Amino acid sequence: MFNGVGNIFATMNELGIKRGEVVLLVRKTGRYMRRSPTEEGSRFLTGPFESVFRAIANETKSLSGLLRTESVICFSKIIIGFSTAIDHYNPQPSKETFQEFASFMKGAFQSFRVDDCKDRVVVVSRPDRAIINEREIVFKVSELLSSFGLNYCLNVTAFEKIEVHFQINMMTTTRLLFGVDGTGLMNSAFMAWPCGVLVHLRAYGTSLLHPLKGSNFRRLALLGAGFYLMWENRHFNSTILNKSKLSPAVIDILQRGDASPREISRLSGHERHVAVLCQHTYVSAPEILSVLERALQTIINCRQGLYTANANMIRIEADFPTVGN
Question: Rounded to two decimals, what is the model's pTM?
Answer without folding.
Answer: 0.82
